[in-house]
Amino acid sequence: MKIAEILKQYKRVTVVGISANINRPSNWISRYLQENQFEIIGVNPGLPKIQGIQVVATIQEVPLPLEIVDVFRNSASIPSLLEELRPLKPAVIWLQPGAQNPAAEEYARSLGIEVVSGNCIYEEHSKLQALTTNN
Question: Against a cut of 0.90, is the pTM above it?
Answer without folding.
Answer: yes
